[in-house]
Amino acid sequence: xxxxxxxxxxxxxxxxxxxxxxxxxxxxxxxxxxxxxxxxxxxxxxxxxxxxxxxxxxxxxxxxxxxxxxxxxxxxxxxxxxxxxxxxxxxxxxxxxxxxxxxxxxxxxxxxxxxxxxxxxxxxxxxxxxxxxxxxxxxxxxxxx
Length: 145
What we know:
This protein is an alpha+beta fold. It has helices spanning 25-47, 65-71, 75-78, 92-105, 140-144, and strands at residues 2-8, 14-21, 53-56, 59-63, 110-116, 128-134. The strands form three sheets. A two-stranded antiparallel ribbon has the order 1-2. It has a two-stranded antiparallel ribbon with strand order 3-4. The longest helix has 23 residues, at 25-47.
């Protein structure tokens, strides 16, 4: 990166330029490494045979194809939907949050069996028992928002 400041004489002609160069090679290398890591993470997320969802503020932020297929719905249907919508018992969501917070205090993930349900009109409307593994990411306050 180069920053330059020109010096102009009384007659308006350029007399000199003061420049500063900053080597950003290490920054560019870190950016490339991060891009590769993110691509690898996406490949694993998409290829996983287990249903995976990232939930924020009680809503599904992202879900993989395995979860959509398990429920007989599209990615678009899952995106932004309240997580409780895919549970046979919507009250399970509060219990999931409770055990997940308790596990986070121990530095662990929470495990719970839940019955998932597909919405009306989905390819399959039968429920599916699932072993749910949940982990709190960020602070407890962030999970509430």
